[in-house]
Amino acid sequence: MATQQAGIAHAVRGDTLADILERVLDKGVVIAGDIKIKLVDIELLTIQIRLLIASVDKAKEMGMDWWSTNPAFCSSAREAKAPAASDPSNHLSQQA
């Protein structure tokens, strides 16, 4: 009696976490969801979640660069927003 071994082909890729992270940041991932709480057909609460995971370069490519104008994230935006200390008209307007 001859025994036959069936070959099982596995689709195994040697992707590491770094490879997967690089691919996600390069392409970008969008996660969207809505949560609605209703009681007797009256909507009490709606939460809309939109999450984009992408690299900074990819986000800039898509036209998203809010961090470059936000003073909490960018020192140049902070300096542009801060009034000049040596400007006497600024001092007078603060006293008024």
The tally of beta strands, per DSSP, is 2
Strand order of the largest sheet: 1-2
Helical proportion?
25-40%
- Derived structural class: alpha+beta
H/E topology pattern: HEEHHH
Tell me the major beta sheet: 2 strands, antiparallel
Structural Rg: 27 Å
Number of helices: 4
Label the overall shape: flat
Cα(first) to Cα(last) distance is 104 Å
Could you list the spans in which at least 5 consecutive residues all have pLDDT below 50?
A: none
Q: What is the mean pLDDT?
A: 77
Please indicate the percent range of residues in DSSP E strands (runs of 2 or more). 15-25%
Structure description:
- This protein is flat.
- A hairpin with a 2-residue loop joins β1 (29-39) and β2.
- The chain has a domain at 17-83.
- Helix content is 33%, strand content 24%.
- The chain has a two-stranded antiparallel ribbon with strand order 1-2.
- With 96 residues, it is an alpha+beta fold.
- The model has no long low-confidence stretch (mean pLDDT 77).
Features:
24% strand, two-stranded antiparallel sheet, alpha+beta, 4 helices
Provide the fold topology.
Layout: H1 17-27, E1 29-39, E2 42-53, H2 56-61, H3 75-81, H4 88-95
Antiparallel strand pairs: 1-2
Summary, kept brief:
By secondary structure, the protein is of the alpha+beta class. It has a domain at 17-83. It has four helices and two strands, in the order αββααα.
